[in-house]
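Case study 2.
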Amino acid sequence: MTETVGRRERKKAQTRKALADAALSLFLEHGYDKVGVRDVAEAADVSVTTLFKHFPSKEALVFDEDEDIEAALVSAVRDRAPGQSVLHSLREHFVETRSSRRIDDPAVIAHIGLVRETPELQEYWDRMWRRHEFALAAAIAEAAGAPEGDLRSAALARFVMDTASLIRGQEDQRQAMRELFALIEAGFGDTPA
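Prediction:
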């Protein structure tokens, strides 16, 4: 049974990747507005119904790592090493994320350009990023033993999430990220949460 579940999950992941790759390729080649979900489904050799089982909307096709990004943020707080502060764990996570993502990669540049040039995708990105921020704020509040909706946790999550846009264009993004986290830590202190 375990092998079947593993095989099923791998197949789902392959279908999801094929859809996201087909969508990005078509959007970059023809323009976001000129490509429909049916075109993407055909390019990935699946039905439109299958497409919507994997992605709730056309915009979501461009952000196929959405759930993984949010899960990793929350995990950085919940699964941190014993005695490690939330800020230190988040700093490590964000610095590692910057080092694993090649910002000079033409594919990354094209993806970012597509998002910035397409109002629907920019709006989706903003909503997605704020949803990640709220999930992070909830994880920080939980780690601090604070009530849901805790203002300090929400502020910390906002500042942490905004570091990604603040370092854009910096030559050494990892160092810039460390400097921003030092500023955040100076304001919030090095508390467990």
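The chain has a mean pLDDT of 90.
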